[in-house]
Write a structure and sequence with these properties.
With about 160 residues, the protein is of the alpha+beta class. It has one domain: Peptide deformylase (Peptide Deformylase, Alpha-Beta Complex). It contains two helices and nine strands; from the N terminus they run αβββββββαββ. The chain has a five-stranded antiparallel beta sheet, with helices on both faces. A four-stranded antiparallel beta sheet has the order 4-5-8-9. β6 and β7 form a beta hairpin. The N and C termini lie far apart (about 40 Å).
């Protein structure tokens, strides 16, 4: 496994729409392993492949209950509303309150190319929605007015 460089700021790859993974290969498994190692090293709870410059629909998430790999994830149902602070490994030092669904149903592949479906709530749901947004070229700051972005160094809104 390797720690990859996390793309930040205005890197154009962060605005690209990721392409579906047609087949789970050893190379894809290595990318997932590298993503997990990179996420843990950066003390994050989720990472999308585009954040390391790979324009594929791959996500890793761990909110404290163990690592979840998602290949070609899609949110098939969403309900409820929760407003909570989010940050992003690709936007270091920025936070903001984002409204997300409380409950979601997710469909994805596992590493064996089996379709998995599960429900996620609260922080797990928030993390998955955040990472799926990355796959669609969306950053959490896209949901905020500039005056609602909090700069962590100063804890001030700009």
């Amino acid at each position: 496994m390797s720690i990859r460089i996390i793309r930040t700021g205005k890197d154009p790859v962060l605005r690209q729409v990721a392409k579906p993974v047609p087949k789970v290969t050893k190379a894809i498994e290595k990318v997932l392993d590298d993503m997990a190692e990179t996420m843990y090293d950066a003390e994050g709870i989720g990472l999308a492949a585009v954040q390391i410059g790979i324009v594929k629909r791959l996500v890793v998430v761990d909110v404290g209950d163990g690592l979840v790999d998602l290949i070609n994830p899609e949110i098939v149902e969403a309900s409820g509303s929760q407003i909570g602070y989010e940050g992003c490994l690709s936007l270091p030092g920025l936070r903001g309150e984002v409204d997300r669904a409380v409950n979601i149903k997710v469909r994805a592949w596992n590493r064996k190319e089996e379709v998995i479906e599960f429900e996620a709530t609260e922080l797990f749901a928030r993390a998955i929605q955040h990472e799926v947004d990355h796959l669609n070229g969306i950053l959490f700051t896209d949901y905020l007015k500039p005056s609602d972005v909090v700069y962590e160094d100063t804890q001030e809104r700009k």
